[in-house]
Amino acid sequence: MAHVDYFERKLDDKRRLTIPVEVRAEFASGVVLTRGFGRYLHLYPKSVWDGDVEAALNNSSSILDEKTADVNVQFRRGKTEAELDQKQGRVTIEQHLMDYAGIDKAIVAVRAGKYWRLMVPD
After folding, report:
1. Beta bridge partners of 119
2. Does domain 6-119 have CATH number 3.40.1550.20?
3. pTM score, two decimals?
């Protein structure tokens, strides 16, 4: 099976993104969508969120560490969790996340290590 690092899609009228068949197994644990570092979204397999991201977000020895708190707010604000629908491998993107990233219908998805960056096409 081909290794997929990039795909383009158009959302349907219900704001659903269809994940390519070649990468659906990555999302067997579920999907986490959240704001990215910039005006784009991050799409994580739930297993990556639960393991790697949660550990990174909680990697501070002080409850008063402002930098860690800021990153937590960035990634948790608007965070949604979902399951891919079994039939067509789709996930719904909430309107507030689409507004944040400036996404209307067209999406470009690029693998960024263990997660995907979702953004508007150039």
Report:
1. 108
2. yes
3. 0.90
